[in-house]
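User: My advisor, Dr. K., asked me to get a structural model of this assembly before our group meeting. I'm new to this, so sorry if the format is off. These are the inputs:
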Amino acid sequence: MYSKEIIKGTLKPIILKLLQENNRMYGYEITQAVKDLTADKIKITEGALYPLLHKLEAEGVVFTEKESIGKRVRKYYALTPSGKEKTQELIEEFVDFMATMKHIFEPNLQPGYGTA
Amino acid sequence: MYSKEIIKGTLKPIILKLLQENNRMYGYEITQAVKDLTADKIKITEGALYPLLHKLEAEGVVFTEKESIGKRVRKYYALTPSGKEKTQELIEEFVDFMATMKHIFEPNLQPGYGTA
DNA sequence: AATCTATACATAAGACTTTTATGTATAGGA
DNA sequence: TCCTATACATAAAAGTCTTATGTATAGATT
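Assistant: The format is fine. Below is the predicted structure of the whole assembly, which you can bring to the meeting.
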């Protein structure tokens, strides 16, 4: 588990990346997927996740479908067409950003390797 | 220039990494170093930088030396012994974190390459 | 039958980080 | 003389995330 400060700013890119790959997901599923993908190093808290999903819906980036599982209701989130565009842009920016960070933190590597 | 949200949480690791490599630096020098290292993609604002430096000093991570350049005064920052330890730990955590992020955002790469 | 854990949603107060705006002052170039 | 660069600093506001709390169903264990 990473210290909290380090994860700042990555929640939105992570969620959108998952939605880009999985077509549709519900909130709890997202928290589990991140836990699994990162071997428990990143745990998304509900207090951060749900407000962000609601905000993305209000912005038209995602839309929702409710589905009943027994007596419980699941709320699935999926990208809208414009959301897909924005997501693609954001992810490209994020990947570029990570390459820049890598350049700062591993300055001995030859440019070109690792990103090709 | 990246959108602001993306850079969140990286300011402290960046500053400490620079101080680890450069022995001592002053505030303005840090802003320029980051601009140069990232081809203007990341610009550290003074409103974020100076309060953080003051906080790091209050925590005993860095110490300062004032130096007069003509009539102006420069304030150099350098890592304390305990600050060096904390910095090393933070940077290792950050590098690990970046590898985890890379795993999420570039899932097709074979593990082992790029980090070896 | 009762209790614990997992699933599944949600909100609200507070902490923390960063942006935006503003201020002061010296130095150098146009 | 004026503009830009150098060099520090603070303070209000915005924004993000943590921590805490709440509700409820479902399944497993005691």
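One thing worth pointing out at the meeting: The longest strand of chain A covers residues 62-69.

User: Perfect, thanks a lot.
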